[in-house]
Amino acid sequence: METLVTTTGTLLNSAADVFDQVVSAASQFESTLSPAAMSVVKGFMGNDVLSAGFFLMIIGSSYTFFKDMIVGYYQEVQSWFYVSIVVQDGDQLYNWLSDWISERPLTKSIRHLSAKTVWPENDDDLDYFDDGEEERPKLVYAPGSGTHVLYHMGYKVSVSRETPDQGTSNEDSEQNRILKKDSITISTVGWDMSLLKMIVQDAMDKSYKKRAGKTTIYSTQPFDNYWSNAETRAPRAFHSVILAKGLKEELLSDITMFRKSARWYHDRGIPYRRGYLLHGPPGTGKTSFIVALAGHLRMNVCIVNLGISGFNDKQLNQLLNSAPRNSILLMEDVDAALVKRKAGKDQEGENNVTLSGILNSLDGITAQEGSVVFMTTNHIRKLAPALIRPGRCDRKLLFDYADEHQIRGMCLKFLLSRSASGQLTKDRLTKDETLSEEVDPEEQARMDIYDAHVHEVAEQICQKITHKDSVTTAQLQAFFMLHRESPDTIVDAIPGFLKELARERAALSTKKRLRRQREERMKARKEAEKKKEKEAKIAAGETMEANGDEDDEDEEATSECNTDSDYYEEAEGGSASVFGAKNINGEAR
Ligand SMILES: Nc1ncnc2c1ncn2[C@@H]1O[C@H](COP(=O)(O)OP(=O)(O)OP(=O)(O)O)[C@@H](O)[C@H]1O
Q1: Residues 177, 224: contact at Cβ < 8 Å?
Q2: What confidence tens digit (pLDDT) does each residue in 148-159 have?
Q3: 475 CB within 6 A, ligand 1
């Protein structure tokens, strides 16, 4: 209680002090300014306290004004003595320069760092798995936000990283992400730009050197209108993707021919671009093929997944037009974007791409002469004809369930002691030998016997699993990976594997059938309600207005949600009956 009284007393005393100071400030103003001016202010404001407040406000504003002016002049004068280069996020140079900066030794004066994890690059085929210790990423530090000093070739260079305030509300942050970008400014004292230009050039050269012979995969975040992520990795071996016989070679020669035909297109006034649609069940190698193709052709891949909401037409357009040169543009799950658009009409054009937006983006890719666009879908029947007409989509290729050629190929890929490129698989060696060493002849002979046995097993497997079983290459991959150490027992495991797949399919089909039934019931109920309403209105003598069937459209859209079971249902009784016999272009023969 005593403490409370003391504290209250102290607070009251402080308030009285502040009041005294304000009043004494007013008197000081009176003595500083002319009493006549003070009396005008007092007359206007009414009393001493308000007059003092008024003067404090004037002083505060003047201070801010003069401070800004002095800082402005200081910066203006300072800018006379240094040169700088600004690079904004969204340009490839931003990442190159970021990497360049993070490779510089950090000086002691840098006290604010940014840290990120970087995985060591693996030059092996990505399908190769090592049993070693769990790999850990490397920690990479770089100067964080603010201004820092680095040294390059003995010269002092200031590096300034700025991250714009992203705002608080959702709307703000979306706008800001598009308009305001992170930036890096490098500056140095003097009037000579050559050091800075050398740094920028060095950053670019280093990046190209690192990427040589590799595939860079660009992707983006929802709400971004530039390629915000770039991942460089060893190219996926072209032979590691196993497609129906002849399909890979056919596609490769089509693209190779296209890439050599710039003049041909130009002479005939045809836009120099080529579009491909890869369609088929999930897990048949559509994405893997595109990535492997890019590696084979020494191209990069720019992936935009239209199934993810957060992209609108404008962003898509900007993304496609700002794709780095020599890239394959990959639009994944085109059907998902359109279904979502229908289902979420309110947001159309804000957070979702529209059909016309996709069409305009495809037609308007002007930034890249010779662009190669791939679209993938699991549901070709849901695509609008306008999207897949020639000109936008020149080739439509079915990636179907595995055929005999693929089943054999997948089996050999996982079980043989050598990969398709002829390289030995280390885990098949019984002796402790490294792959770089000459392998012992005895060991070689043992592996030749082993491989001959694997070929026999592959033939047996082709008898047991057929195209009619509707197995995807991804499912085969999982199965062969599981049994890759036991070729002797793998054939016996096949019935169980097929049973498990059938069970999975049945579960998905039942789920879908139930969902369809539920949707049909809802639709019937809605129609009955509408009919009742109409009858009631007619009975009341009201004129009926023609009712658009927008609701129906929405319902239809929702009921068209993608599920993998579409394919399983269709495939019941054999996929050949569903898709018919297909030629290499995926068209019915
Ligand atoms: N034809 C194939 N050859 C080699 N590996 C394959 C093949 N098909 C699938 N795989 C393997 O299966 C996995 C999934 O493949 P991928 O993502 O390419 O399939 P997808 O057809 O693009 O699927 P989705 O339609 O769901 O996007 C990958 O690990 C890939 O290595």
Answers
A1: yes
A2: 888 888 888 989
A3: no
How many other CB atoms are there within 10 angstroms of residue 225's CB atom? 20
Q: Do residues 310 and 222 make contact, with C-beta atoms less than 8 angstroms apart?
A: yes
Q: Could you tell me the two tokens for 463?
A: 């008898």
Atom of ligand 1 lying closest to residue 474 CA? 12
The list of the chain residues with pLDDT below 50 reads: 124-129, 172, 341, 343-349, 544, 546-565, 568-589
Residue indicated by tokens 């009955």: 528
Q: What pLDDT is stored for residue 46 in this prediction?
A: 66
Cα torsion angle, 443, 449, 450, 454, sign:
positive
> What are the tokens at 237?
């071996």
* Long-range contacts, 197-204 (Cβ 8 Å, 24+): 197/85, 199/97, 199/100, 199/152, 199/157, 200/85, 200/87, 200/93, 200/97, 202/100, 203/93, 203/96, 203/97, 203/99, 203/100, 204/93, 204/96
Ligand 1 centre from 558 Cα, in Å? 27
Our mutation pick for probing the ligand 1 site, out of 473, 476, 481, 567, counting the most ligand atoms within 8 A of Cβ, is: 473
Give the strand pairing for 155-162 and 183-189.
Answer: antiparallel
What's the CATH architecture for 228-398?
3-Layer(aba) Sandwich (3.40)
The DSSP 8-state label assigned to residue 7 in this structure reads H
Residue with tokens 């931003």: 94
Summarised one tens digit per residue, pLDDT across range 316-372 is: 888 888 888 888 999 998 887 665 545 444 444 455 788 888 888 888 776 567 889
Give CA–CA dist 584/276, Å, rounded. Answer: 13
pLDDT value of residue 553: 39
Cα–Cα nearest to 248, from 409, 370, 131, 98? 409
294, with CB counted inside 10 A (0-12, 13-18, 19+), is buried
Report pLDDT for 458. 93
Residue pointed to by tokens 């920028």: 200
Alpha-helical (H) ranges within 88-130 are: 92-103
State in Å: Cα 536 to ligand 1 middle: 56
CA dist 251 and 395 (Å) reads 9
